[in-house]
Amino acid sequence: MKKLLLGGALLAPLVMTTPALAETSVEEAQRLYREHCRHCHDDGSPHGEYTPMTLIQAQWERYFDRKFEREHRKVTDDKFGGVPVTEAISPEILEKIRQFAIDHAADTDQPMTCG
Ligand code: HEC
To answer: Does the beta carbon of 23 lie inside 6 Å of ligand 1?
Structure first.
């Protein structure tokens, strides 16, 4: 019995933090941007404030293709145990964030922030 109660107590927080099943792919990408980018690029950040609608599509494409890796591989991310930003983000997640930024850039018909 004791064991059962303990199991329930451990599981409860997991269930509560699981995103709603109905999360759309845009919502997922926005959440990933919030998780992986916002803490360093929020309003008033010394590294610059960046949300999808900060730049136009061509600027995001160029940034991810030519500069993102170079500029972030030496920046450590305390939120993810102090590993470089480029290691804290898997290639699959980075691709989702990249697509989200491009799809919702300033010159699209659906400009967005990261929420
Ligand atoms: C741990 C902190 C950190 C995280 C996480 C992080 N960045 Fe950065 N970012 C930086 C730093 C530091 C720079 C370099 C800023 C500078 O040169 O002053 C930078 C630079 C940038 C720049 C270009 C700034 C410029 O003027 O050239 C963009 C755009 C950017 N980051 C976007 C992102 C995106 C998108 C993510 C998430 C996928 C992200 N960053 C995650 C710290 C971070």
So the answer is: no
